[in-house]
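Tip: read the tokens left to right.
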């Protein structure tokens, strides 16, 4: 019997076929433990309920309290390194909350069910300012006479199809001396489209005091046409573009090569722990490599610490758009991974638990994926011409993946473990570019390109911007005490020799953190290595890991004005600091409305970094000059770097 199915059902059928290969694995693999098995495990659902109960009983979780973040408060590093499986360990939660216009920080001892710290942190703003009070502000704006008048000038009287949302914090166009949480709100037309980002109602901004829930002003710089071209990109809207490729199936008939115990992973001599943190995403910890039967430490902890996206348009509605997406957002970055689409169908998937409204725990399904891939490239090869014989080895990678949706952008975060002892860290940027509506239809009017963006559709200019990702890498190369070695490649001249010029390597141990601020410069090449001066390899070299950049950008802004004073970590590619328990985020714990925070501020102390416990920070980024092919949805752009063994092994 033949049945005619609606298009949406056809999509569901195709998707179900993709999912069918992995559904059994997903059911068994995504359960979330109620009891932690490791000191660095993420907070469990049961622990979240304990935290909520403690805060309620202590009178700190009231109707007017916004719980911004509830995170695992890591035990001291020395305690984790001493811990043995089966032994008891501490469990604490770090609380970030907002009440009455003030920010509070607290610590809950989860095992003892006690609030051990609760204090007001003056002069800072907690994250999470994008979501709280949204419905209240939207209702007030719709009734505001200046807002209604501005919409009427644009021929809009029905606000039922509008989407009103905060688009940036407000540094400009604000009352003098107002230090509250101030945001700029914009509006989009939703009528007839799913992708409201393609229907901006430009030139209209409201400045809102979020602490008092007061609309300070409505600014109207003049109406421009609302774009009306196609902006949706779902399968039904786009239709058939080409013939689908032939089916391709990758199977592991004997299952994966990795073993998982709780959140500890063992694969091809690697062993590591991971968790999905609500603020920074995947955290890999206690990374070791078994060499000759002995586990050797490489990385105590690694994670993305901050993400900065500044836009490059001085117009009133755009000049404040400079997002610190991790520090200023509320928790719960991970979005569900779709097996067979976002990752291989055979991947092992993991749920996570985050804090929901009023501290009620919420499960995020399929928050992380773990899978092996054959990239189709060899580990190495050589053809022996005398023997007419080739020696070649295939290559396999283990990938830990999380995907975050931050407003209009989606980011894929991969930690890729390689058989040669290297770790590649990769970021994929996709999603929707921010665009502004303009009076001009396109370039055919002869007036040239907009200096602040590119036409991608009629009346639509995608604004120039940057993406910067700062990774915190607490490297422990064969132990805790390491040093930073900078090796410069410099030319040597032999005026009277047949060969007049060569280059040599000049090594230098960098003693303090100011001197460790590094920029990539192809005309002055060199290597950045974290070494253990106390451990030597077979031929006498100190063991080390080399941070190998693989393409990058550098900010063109200065740190003496907005927004260059934010995202200060973008002014260098590489930083090294002495390890401190409270220095976790490259732009500081509370970056909202702050300048010269985090790494810019810490490294001014110029502390010693030689033969001690150090942390490397690497900033990966790119300038995004948007092309037509990036609209209405951006093909994934991959950026990456690698930390690789350098004289770490004996061969």
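Filled-in amino acids:
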């Amino acid at each position: 019997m033949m049945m005619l199915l609606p298009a949406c059902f056809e999509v569901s059928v195709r998707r179900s076929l993709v999912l069918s290969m992995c559904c059994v694995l997903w059911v068994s693999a995504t359960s979330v433990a109620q009891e932690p098995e490791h000191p660095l495990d993420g907070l469990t659902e049961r622990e979240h309920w304990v935290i909520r109960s403690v805060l309620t009983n202590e009178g700190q979780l009231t109707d007017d309290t916004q719980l911004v973040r509830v995170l695992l408060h890591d035990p001291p590093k020395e305690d984790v390194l001493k811990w043995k499986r089966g032994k008891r360990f501490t469990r604490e939660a770090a609380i970030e909350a907002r009440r009455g216009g003030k920010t509070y920080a607290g610590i809950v001892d989860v095992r003892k069910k006690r609030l051990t710290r609760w204090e007001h942190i003056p002069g800072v703003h907690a994250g999470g300012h994008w979501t709280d009070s949204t419905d209240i502000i939207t209702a007030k704006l719709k009734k505001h006479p200046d807002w209604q008048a501005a919409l009427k000038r644009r021929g809009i009287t029905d606000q039922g199809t509008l989407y009103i949302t905060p688009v940036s914090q407000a540094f400009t166009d604000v009352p003098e001396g107002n230090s509250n949480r101030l945001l700029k709100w914009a509006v989009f037309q939703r009528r007839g489209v799913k992708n409201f980002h393609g229907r901006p109602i430009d030139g209209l901004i409201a400045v809102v005091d979020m602490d008092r829930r007061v609309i300070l002003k409505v600014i109207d710089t003049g109406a421009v046409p609302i774009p009306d071209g196609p902006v949706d990109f779902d399968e039904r809207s786009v239709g058939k573009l080409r013939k689908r490729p032939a089916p391709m199936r990758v199977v592991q008939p004997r299952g994966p090569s990795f073993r998982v115990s709780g959140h500890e992973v063992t694969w091809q001599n690697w062993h590591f722990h991971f968790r999905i943190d609500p603020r920074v995403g995947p955290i890999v910890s206690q990374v070791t490599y078994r060499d000759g039967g002995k586990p050797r430490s490489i990385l105590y902890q690694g994670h993305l610490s901050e993400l900065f996206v500044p836009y490059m348009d001085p117009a009133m509605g755009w000049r404040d758009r400079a997002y610190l997406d991790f520090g200023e957002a509320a928790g719960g970055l991970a979005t569900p991974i779709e097996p067979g689409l976002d990752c291989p169908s055979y991947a092992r998937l993991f749920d996570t638990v985050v804090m929901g409204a009023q501290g009620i725990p919420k499960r995020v399904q399929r928050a992380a994926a773990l899978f092996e891939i054959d990239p189709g490239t060899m580990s190495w090869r050589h053809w022996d011409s005398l023997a007419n014989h080739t020696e070649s080895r295939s290559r396999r990678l283990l990938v830990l993946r999380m995907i975050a949706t931050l407003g209009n952008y989606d980011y894929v975060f991969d930690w890729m473990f390689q058989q040669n002892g290297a770790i590649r860290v990769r970021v994929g940027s996709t999603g929707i570019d921010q665009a502004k509506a303009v009076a001009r239809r396109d370039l055919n009017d002869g007036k040239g390109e907009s200096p602040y963006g590119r036409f991608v559709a009629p009346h639509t200019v995608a604004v120039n911007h940057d993406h910067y990702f700062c990774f915190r890498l607490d490297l422990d190369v064969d132990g805790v005490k390491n040093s930073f070695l900078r090796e410069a490649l410099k030319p040597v001249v032999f005026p009277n020799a047949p060969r007049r010029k060569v280059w040599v390597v000049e090594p230098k141990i960098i003693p303090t953190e100011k001197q460790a601020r590094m920029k990539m410069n192809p005309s002055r090449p060199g290597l950045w290595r974290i070494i253990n001066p106390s451990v030597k390899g077979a031929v006498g070299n100190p063991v080390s890991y080399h941070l190998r950049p693989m393409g990058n950008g550098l900010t063109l802004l200065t740190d003496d004005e907005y927004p260059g004073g934010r995202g200060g970590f973008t002014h260098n590619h590489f930083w090294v600091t002495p390890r401190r328990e409270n220095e976790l985020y490259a732009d500081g714990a509370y970056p909202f409305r702050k300048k010269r925070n985090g790494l810019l501020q810490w490294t001014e102390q110029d502390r010693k970094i030689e033969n001690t416990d150090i942390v490397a920070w690497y900033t990966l980024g790119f300038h995004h000059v948007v092309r037509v092919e990036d609209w209405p949805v951006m093909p994934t752009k991959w950026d990456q770097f690698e930390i690789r063994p350098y004289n770490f092994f004996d061969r």
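The chain has three domains: 31-120, 134-228, 259-375+394-646. The first helix runs from residue 7 to 20.
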